[in-house]
């Protein structure tokens, strides 16, 4: 039997819409409450260096508003470490961050940046925060995660999503194969594999069918769908597709 598959809902882009007008509507905290009501397994939020979506006060309000685990996506910087230690999220996912990128465009170079990441992983771990590394599904990066003693890795599914969007079945198969293989290898090494980025109703099922994956983190597509159907039906539909694929 595959592990049950959790759905973490990334609510960043509720804040993106709010920030477009500078007021307080729509409130990501309201989205967090809906995620809890509809049976989502966790809230994911990325506090970016430029605060383009989630802001510091959102984190405190999200923590207060729901008992769902909060997965804080953060760059490996001293500023973000201090914020994570202050807010004590259930989990922290270390992501690469470039100011000029539109979204997190690739995985963390855990292998090349070992010395920068190691003390951050250690301090988060000492504070009881479950650390995850957002990496490409590559053996070199997984080896680095093992050396860093990260309990969780999240595989970047962006390339897989792009391959499907481009209608390139060969590339899609290749991407799916490497995520499948690396999920198995992670689990074999005692690391819990997660996945996310660019997942939609149309492309989620082959990923959800990978038996070792324990969690998917999905944001942009769900918030986009919510514009048309509401957040609740969008989450329910994603949940259904994930469960059916298992
Ligand atoms: N997981 C991580 C680590 C991310 O950085 C993101 C995007 O912020 C996601 C999942 C969600 O990606 P998307 O918004 O494309 O669903």
The CATH architecture designation is: Alpha-Beta Barrel
The rough form would be described as: globular
Q: Ranges with pLDDT <50 over ≥5 residues?
A: none
CATH class membership? Alpha Beta
Cofactors, ions, other ligands: pyridoxine-5'-phosphate
β-sheet strand percentage: 15-25%
Write a structural description.
With 246 residues, the chain is an alpha/beta fold. The chain has one domain: TIM Barrel. 49% of the residues lie in helices and 16% in strands. It is built from eleven helices and eight strands. The protein has helices spanning 12-21, 28-37, 56-65, 78-87, 114-126, 139-147, 158-165, 169-188, 204-208, 220-229, 231-245, and strands at residues 6-10, 42-46, 70-74, 91-94, 130-135, 152-156, 192-196, 215-218. It has an eight-stranded parallel barrel with strand order 1-2-3-4-5-6-7-8, surrounded by seven helices. Helix 5 (114-126) links the parallel strand 4 (91-94) and strand 5. Helix 2 (28-37) packs parallel to helix 3 (56-65), helix 7 packs antiparallel against helix 8 and helix 10 packs across helix 11. The protein is globular and about 45 Å long. The site of pyridoxine-5'-phosphate has 19 residues, from strand 8 and helix 10.
């Amino acid at each position: 039997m595959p592990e049950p598959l959790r759905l973490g809902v990334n609510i960043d882009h509720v804040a993106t819409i709010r920030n477009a007008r500078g007021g307080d509507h729509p409130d990501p905290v309201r989205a967090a409450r809906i995620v809890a009501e509809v049976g989502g397994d966790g809230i994911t939020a990325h506090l970016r260096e430029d605060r383009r979506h989630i802001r510091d006060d959102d984190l405190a309000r999200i923590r207060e508003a729901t008992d769902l685990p909060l997965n804080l996506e953060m760059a490996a910087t001293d500023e973000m470490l201090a914020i994570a230690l202050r807010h004590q999220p259930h989990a922290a996912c270390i992501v690469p961050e470039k100011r000029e990128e539109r979204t997190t465009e690739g995985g963390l170079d855990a292998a090349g940046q070992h010395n920068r990441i190691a003390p951050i992983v250690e301090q988060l771990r000492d504070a009881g925060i479950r650390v995850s590394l957002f990496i490409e599904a590559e053996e070199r990066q997984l080896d680095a995660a093992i050396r860093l003693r990260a309990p969780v890795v999240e595989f970047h599914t962006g390339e897989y999503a792009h391959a499907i969007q481009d209608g390139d079945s060969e590339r899609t198969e290749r991407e799916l194969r490497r995520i499948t293989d690396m999920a198995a290898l992670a689990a074999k090494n005692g690391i819990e594999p997660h996945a996310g980025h660019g997942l939609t109703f149309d492309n989620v099922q082959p990923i959800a069918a990978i038996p070792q994956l324990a969690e998917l983190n999905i944001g942009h597509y769900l918030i986009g769908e919510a514009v048309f159907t509401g957040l609740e039906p969008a989450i329910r539909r994603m949940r259904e597709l994930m469960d059916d694929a298992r």
